[in-house]
Amino acid sequence: MVDRIVDCLGDNKCTGMKNVTINEPFFQGHFPGHPIMPGVLQLEAMAQVSSVLMLRKPENVGKLGYFMSADNVKWRRPVMPGDTLFIETEIIKIRGSIGQTRCRCLVNGDVVSEAELKFALLDR
After folding, report:
1. Alpha helices in the chain, H assignment, sequence order
2. pLDDT band (50, 70, 90) for residue 10
3. Which residues make beta-bridge pairs with 100?
4. Which among 13, 81, 113, 122 is least surrounded, fewest beta carbons within 10 Å?
5. Distance between CA 115 and CA 88 in Å, rounded?
């Protein structure tokens, strides 16, 4: 989903980017004549950038991040073909093998979706 990681600030923040093009296969059915990016795929992009951020920590090298839950999920406006989606993540806390992030997706500086995500960080 994510095209690239554009920035990681210290150990606790990371930003990814996704160019949303009309060629995405999900636009064929979501919705015919009015293409919008499914909210669940925005959530997936947040989870991917969150995993990159948490697995960069030295204590998590070699582990896998298993998506556990999404809380306080909000979709604020549709994401359309031609938009560039910036996915910002920040670690809220890590306790033992459980990590939690706060995330938001932005288009042109406006928040289009946001969520708090939890992961289990486990050995392979």
Report:
1. 39-55
2. confident
3. 93, 118
4. 122
5. 11
Residues found in the chain: 124
4-123 CATH pick, 3.40.50.150, 2.30.30.40, 3.10.129.10, 3.50.50.60: 3.10.129.10
**Catalytic-role residue among 13, 30, 57, 118:** 30
Burial 57-85, CB ≥16 within 10 A → b, else e: eeebeebebebeeeeebebeeebeeebeb
Catalytic-residue membership of 34: no
Band the pLDDT of 1: cuts 50, 70, 90: confident
Every domain of the chain and the residues it spans: 4-123
Beta bridge partners of 120: 66, 98
Task: Identify the three-state secondary structure at position 68.
Answer: strand
